[in-house]
Q: What sequence folds into this?
């Protein structure tokens, strides 16, 4: 039983795509807004999103629609792995500045 | 003011629901208030430390430190809840019996209590560190002092109030069913936390998603709503879960239920083995 679980785990890990091969996209948080506020990415492809916080206050990059959340400290950059996603539009926001920090991911 | 109060409320709510389930599950145990209070205190200190070290945590493990840290905290909580649930399944009946016959608090295995103290501390630590970072940002960003002085207490009070409401609701469950109910709540709580851990590991590309958005019930109940968020903590509800999250949920719930069954059966067998010589 334990062996079988270990085997399953190994198989699971081996199907993780090598991170360096993935396409990369970038977002910047400036004056508590996303730049660009609308980002187009390919459908059915896993990709890396690099989010840079150019402000002096912490932010949290979050989306309920593609299910991600990560704190972005001032003057630093985070990486989140997203997708593969179906075609459509997916909202994301800055949890710490919800009035201004809004954006949308266009998957096509 | 409202923005501060709302964010604080949401984070406090998540921790408060976990603390409430733990508080209910340790009903009638000697020294429980001290343990839970200690857990909350430790959690607050931990939250401040984690917030201060956020940069170091983030930079660790090739930029995936934050996800790994969250996943480890969540999985540690799952293990500790699991320990308690399985321990309770062999001692729960005895506990109820003692509570009914003695009519007041009973002594429980301290290892199980320490586990639950840690669960409380970890829950407060995880949600608290976000509040600390958020408030630091608000203060540094020039938010008015009145905003913070009013928003924070209102947010905390709101979250704690929901926790108390749930607690007193749970107390209405008759005593003979009480620990069965709280044990099941702990199983669902642990399964949900395991699912959240899987989400962080997928986000860091440490685990495959096994299909993002296995289903989508966000039109029915969104995770952004307060009810969706409460259910997210209590039973692991996710409007758009990945396949791997569902696998983590099922495996955790399955293992705990098997563990409970096995311990209950072992316990009653041991008891009948003891009573048999007397009967013959």
A:
């Amino acid at each position: 039983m334990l062996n079988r679980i270990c085997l399953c785990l190994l198989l699971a890990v081996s199907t993780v795509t090598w991170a360096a091969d993935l396409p990369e996209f970038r977002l910047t948080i400036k004056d508590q807004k996303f730049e660009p506020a609308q980002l187009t990415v390919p459908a059915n492809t896993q990709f890396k999103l690099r989010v840079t916080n150019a402000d002096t206050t912490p932010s949290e990059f979050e989306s309920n629609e593609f299910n991600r959340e990560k704190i972005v400290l001032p003057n630093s950059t985070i990486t989140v792995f997203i997708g593969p996603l179906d075609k459509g539009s997916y909202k994301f926001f800055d949890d710490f500045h919800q009035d201004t920090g809004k954006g949308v991911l266009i998957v096509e | 003011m409202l923005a501060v109060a709302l964010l604080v409320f949401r984070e406090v709510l998540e921790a408060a629901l976990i603390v409430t389930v733990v508080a209910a599950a340790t009903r009638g145990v000697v020294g429980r208030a001290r343990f839970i209070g200690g857990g909350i205190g430790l959690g607050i200190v931990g939250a401040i430390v984690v917030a201060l070290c956020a940069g170091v945590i983030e930079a660790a493990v090739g930029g995936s430190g934050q996800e790994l840290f969250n996943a480890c905290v969540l999985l540690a909580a799952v293990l500790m809840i699991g320990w308690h649930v399985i321990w309770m399944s062999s001692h729960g009946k005895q506990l109820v019996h003692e509570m009914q016959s003695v009519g007041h608090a009973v002594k429980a295995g301290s290892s199980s209590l320490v586990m639950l103290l840690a669960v409380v501390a970890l829950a407060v630590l995880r949600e608290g560190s976000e509040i600390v970072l958020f408030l630091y940002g608000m203060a540094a960003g020039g938010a008015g002092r009145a905003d913070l002085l009013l928003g924070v207490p209102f947010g905390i009070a709101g979250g704690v109030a929901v926790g108390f409401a749930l607690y007193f609701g749970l107390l209405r469950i008759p005593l003979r069913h009480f620990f069965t109910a709280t044990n099941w709540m702990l199983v669902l709580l642990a399964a949900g936390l395991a699912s959240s851990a899987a989400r962080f590991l997928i986000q860091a590309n440490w685990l495959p998603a096994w299909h993002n958005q296995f289903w989508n019930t966000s039109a029915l109940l969104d995770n952004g709503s307060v009810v969706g968020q409460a259910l997210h903590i209590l039973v692991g509800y996710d409007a758009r879960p990945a396949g791997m999250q569902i696998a983590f949920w099922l495996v955790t719930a399955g293992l705990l239920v098997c563990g409970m069954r096995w311990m209950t059966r072992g316990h009653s067998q041991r008891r009948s083995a003891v009573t048999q010589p007397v009967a013959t």
